[in-house]
Design goal:
The protein has 405 residues and is an all-alpha fold. It has helices at 2-23, 26-35, 46-59, 83-90, 96-118, 124-134, 137-145, 149-157, 165-179, 193-209, 211-220, 232-245, 254-277, 292-312, 327-333, 336-350, 363-395, and strands at residues 229-230, 315-316.
Amino acid sequence: MLNKNIIIISICATLSFFFIILSFYPNYWLNFFGFLFIPPQVPGFSDFWVHIKFLECKELGLTLYENCPEVIFGSKYNTHPSLWIKIFEFLKLKNFFNLNFLVFFILMFYFSSLFYLSKFVLNFKDKVVFLLATFSTSNLLLVERLATDCVIFLLLFFLTTKIRFFIKYFLFFFAIMLKIYPVFALPIFCHNKKKFFIAIAICCFSLFFLWDDIVNINKNLVEFSRAYGYGSRSISKGIYLFLKHYNYLIIENYNILKNLIIFLFLSFFFLIFCSTFFKKKFKKLNEKDIFLKKKLELFLLGSSIFIFTFIFGSSADYRLIFLFFVLPYVLNFYRVKNKIVFLFCLFVSLNSLFFEKGYEYSLTYYVNVSFVYLCKLILFTYLSFTYGYVIKNYIFFKKNLLKNV
């Protein structure tokens, strides 16, 4: 076992080192990711590096959430809590060595976490499916940009490991302070009332502390109305722009349309969830599976992030990496037909960049985007339906099985 772990760590460290070295050579960086159908940007790890530019804005005396002329890639507005700037300032990440040292460890831990998740996929064929998912354009784009979702993924991943609960509470609090949406991971604490109420208190305290940042971020939020985005706000923005372009607008106020679509998705989820959670026949899972509680926990984490960011937000597709958490459950417990449909929609969604072609108001592009969003809606429906069963099994999980996990 030790030798296996050493091999895995060595592979992850080698991959991390490879990407860092590659980022030193802009032409090779552009050619490598361009060959993989990923739209590359230089410098490498641009989403992470851009925080340095916002730090420079702060040093110039500019307000973080206002127009910042020093920021690159066409984005002049900060869409992250101000804690990121404080961390970059405290760790002196403007220093070339410090920044790359941190990037190395983030990538190494991220690759290691994917190996760890594959441990709960028992069937060899299913392991191949999991491996293919990690080579999707969404995951490769995450690595190329080193989006902050990678850091959040790791912080929430550690919530499912065997560490002391006060450390889990701190990581949960830290994740919320960094990106807000980790508040949706709250259900993974629901198997214990005391721990659940402590987690609720952490959420309330964090949101109160972040309220000013939330208001500013909401004003600056980019609503991805493209194939490589997902969420109700992406859908509402896409519909609004398309109808406006062809003068078919029925509702001219975009905020009314956006709130209506959010309400529809929230109601849709609530009805599906209630239909399974309050079902009289309690659907018990295979108690002989020694990883059962872990799979329930991972599913709750991944599906909670996806479902609620879908309902309330607009996200780039690299946030779909949280669906890696649901795969151990889906691959082991979904029936064959449901598994095939789910995996088909998952791979289309994870590789949405292949459908990002053509003029944005053309019929071809509209059909491509509609197909991708239909797949994401099917994923949303499947996960919402399963969510009720899983959370019920998780809450009432037998204590004598916990020793085997």
